[in-house]
Amino acid sequence: MSVANPRRRARAARSLHAALITLALSAPALLGAQTLPAQEIPDDLKRWQLPWLQEESLISGLAAETPFYVDGDEVSALGLGLDAFFADGGVVETIDGSPLYGVALLLDGPQPEGLVWESFDGKGRLLDSGTVEITWSEGEAHVGRALLPRPAARIGLQGGKTKLHFLRAEPLTEALPKQGVLARDLPFEVEQTQAKATPLAPGVVSRAAWGARATGACGSTHSPRYLTIHHTGTPNNDSISSPARMRQMQAYHIDNRGWCDFGYHYSVGIDGRTYQGRDPARTGAHVGNHNTNNVGISVVGTFINFSPRTSQLDALTDISRWVVNRYGIQKNRTYIRGHKEWSGHTSNSCPGLLLPWLPTLVQRLSGTTPPPPPPPPAAATILESFETTVGRFNTAPTFSGSTVGISSVSSAQRSNIEARAGQWSLQLFLRDNPSSNADWFVRLLSGGGTPANNVRLQKAGGRLGAWFYTGASGVSVQFLVDDSDGTEISVARTLQPNTWTFHEVMLDNSAQWTAWAGGNGVITASQVTLDAIVLRRAQTSFDVYVYMDNVQFRVQ
C-alpha cells in the first residue's frame, strides 16, 4: 500500500472500523480468529484485513479481499469498504493537492445509475454537481466518469440508489479531449490477417476472441528491452467473466484515460488464461514516462492480502517466456521488474505480492532454478505445515514486546507464492519502523509464546528445524525455547537469498544455545516447548519477505 493522503486515510479508517466491528460481532469462531475491541484496532489501512477475515476466506474457499485499498491517488472499495467509502462522503482527491478535472470510475454491480458527484474548492466550498456519466456497460460491469466544468480541489461521490459491489475511483488531473471517441462507438476487432501483425503467442486469447474494440495502430513502434509486471486492482473473487473484465478495462482506458487502446500488452485472467492486449511491438500505457521499449503484463486481481492463483503464475510464466525470447529481453531483475520499481512509481504497491515472486519468475525463464535442497531428515514430525491454517503462528510479528525495528504494518499470513512442500507456507512481510534506527529483532511467537499452547519436545536426541526462503540478503533465523529455568536462544543461521534453507538445532548440544530471558544458556529440562522463531537483519528501509514452511521435530 502506498503512502496515501493522511486525511483520507483517517476519515476512511473511522468509517470502516465501525463496519468491521459490526461484522466481528457476528463472525463465526474461527481457528486463530482475533476479534479486537474498537480502541485496539490499529488506525492503519494495512491492518484492515484482520486475521479472522483472512481465515474466514480460507475456510469458505474464497480469495481474501481488501475492503478498502488506497494506492497513490486511486481508491478501491468493495463490500464493507464500499459502504464506508460512501458513508465518509466518497472523497476523491490527489495526494499533492493538484487540481482535479474529473474522476474516472470502474464499477461492478447491477445498478450503477444515479451516482452523484459534487466538486469543492480548496476551502471546502461547493463548486458544481452532477450525475456520473456511464460511458460503457455490459451486465454488471460498467465504466463511469465525471468531467468537471472547472477544476476543483476534491470530489465527493454519493451512492444514492445505486447497487454496486465494487468501485475504483481515480482522479483525473488533466482534461480529456473534448471530442474523444468512446469505446462503445468503435467497431469490434476482427482476426488479424495482415502480414506485419505480431504473431499471437501459443494459447493466448486473441483480441477478436475476447471482444476487443478495434483501435488500429496504437502507440509508437519500439524495441522492447524491459518486461514489467502489474496487478489490475480488481476483485479477487470476480463475478465478471475474464473476457468481460478485459472489455471493461479497455473501455476504462479509452473513455477515462484518453488512451488509444488497452494499456497493457497482455493480461492474465482469473481463469488462468492470457489475453492479448496492445501489440507488443508498439508502446503501451502502463508505466508513465517508461513505456518505450517496455512490455507490460497485468495479472487480474488485488494481491495485497491474497497470492495469485497457481494457474495465473503458470500463465504469467508462459507469456513472459514468449516475450523475453522473442525480443531478447535479458532474464534478470534489472530488466524484469514490478511496476513500483520504476522511478516515479515507487509510492504505489503494484504488483503487490507478485513482487517478491519475481526472482522465481526470472529463475523459471532462465532455466536456472536451483536444484531442490536436500530433503529433511527422515522420521520428522511436522509441527506446522501451513497447508490449511497458520497453526500456532497466529499472531502478528509485532505482537511480542521483544520485537524491535519493524513497523506495526508487518504481517504474517498463509501464502502460496513460495512453498517448500505442498502448496502453502507462512509469509512474513517485514517493513521498517522509520522512527527507529534499531537493527531488526523479530520474535514470531508460536502459540502466543505460552508453553501450554505448544507441543512438548524431548531434549535427549531432539532436533528442532524449519525451512526458510527469502529474496533479501542478511537475514538470519534462530529458535527460542521455553526451558524449566527461563528461555534459551539457539545459534543463528544466515539465509542464502532465493533458495530454500533448512535450519536445524540440537536440543542436547549446549554449544548451540545461549541464555535469553531468565535462562542459563543450557537446556536443562527433559522436555521444552518452542517459544518463537526469531528473524534478525541489520536495519534497512526496504521491505523484506520471508517464507517459512514445515516447522518440524525429530529424535535422533
Spans where pLDDT lies below 50 across 5 or more residues: 20-52
Helix content: 10-25%
Q: What would you call the shape?
A: globular
Mean of the pLDDT scores? 86
Distance between the termini: 46 Å
* Biggest sheet features: 7 strands, antiparallel
Portion of residues in beta strands equals: 25-35%
Task: Output the CATH homologous superfamily of the largest domain.
Answer: Peptidoglycan recognition protein-like
The CATH level-2 architecture of the largest domain is identified as 3-Layer(aba) Sandwich
Number of helices: 7
Compute the gyration radius: what is it? 25 Å
Q: Might you state the CATH topology name of the largest domain?
A: Lysozyme-like
The total domain count is: 3
- Category from helices, strands and their pairing: alpha+beta
Q: Count of DSSP E strands?
A: 28
Per CATH, the class of the largest domain reads Alpha Beta
How does this model look, in words?
The chain has 7 helices and 28 strands. It has 556 residues and is of the alpha+beta class. The protein folds into 3 domains: 170 residues, no CATH class; 183 residues, Lysozyme-like; 175 residues, Galactose-binding domain-like (Jelly Rolls), CATH 2.60.120. Strands 19, 20, 22, 23, 24, 26 and 27 form a 7-stranded antiparallel sheet that branches. The two termini are 46 Å apart. About 6% of the residues have low confidence.
